Protein: AraC-type DNA-binding protein
Amino acid sequence: MLKASLEYLHPQGDHSFLLRSFGPEAFDAPYHFHTAYELTYITGGRGKRYIGSHQDNFGPGDLVLIGPDIPHCWKLEPTDSSDAGAIVVHFSEDTLGPTLLAKTEMEAVTKFLERAKIGIYFTAPISDQIGKRLDSLARETEFYRFTGLLEVLQQLSDDVTCTVFSQQDTVAIQPRASQQRISPVFAYLVENYRSKVSLEEAASLAHMTPQAFCKYFKKTTRKTFMETVMEYRINYAAQQLIQTEKPVSDISFQSGFSDVSFFYRTFKRKMKLSPLNYRRRFMLH
Structure:
């Protein structure tokens, strides 16, 4: 049964956090979660990132911090895989220690980490600055790597241009029991929304009847199950319209729609523009 898998993270020796660089293989990771904070800087490659129920495009310079237990994954576009890479930091509140976090000097960082529990997205110039700093930290000794992490967190906490993911768009604010029930459903959506999606299969992943599942899903996400499926498909189609020159009909089928006319109507209702006009708007910029 498909589900959001738990990843176990073990810093080497007595190290307090993990700092690693990854190539294209890292983007094959399934929709998963862990008990650590994760700071991810994308060095190359483009695709879709999925955090809780939130989805968005990513590319070089993308910087995201997410809190513990939030299911997530990054999926590459096949045409953008050769130079794909990321620098990833995993740390916990134990990394800093409750005594240190309680100090006045750490007040901004402590509040920042609380905000980050549902996810925060950063853009240039701060994302590029942090990306360069993370790259340099890999060559530091253990002590300066640790103090460098503190500097990075302080710098991020000072950024006023960051975007906190909407609580409405994430499963992170759900109680643990509800997270365990809804996460397999989003794992199923992430892997299957571009093909055939079955309400019955999604309901079975949540151990519910289809009728009970529909009520539960809307109460939890404030959207119906099919609204969420269509949102995933339309967002993927929008990405393809901007980043490729594929015919609209091909994009329609590759996004999970079996009827081009229905795709046109759904896209226009969601994006307020037809697929062709949406593409033309971005070609002008």
In short: The longest strand covers residues 37-44. The CA atoms of residues 238 and 275 lie 8 Å apart. The chain has a mean pLDDT of 86.
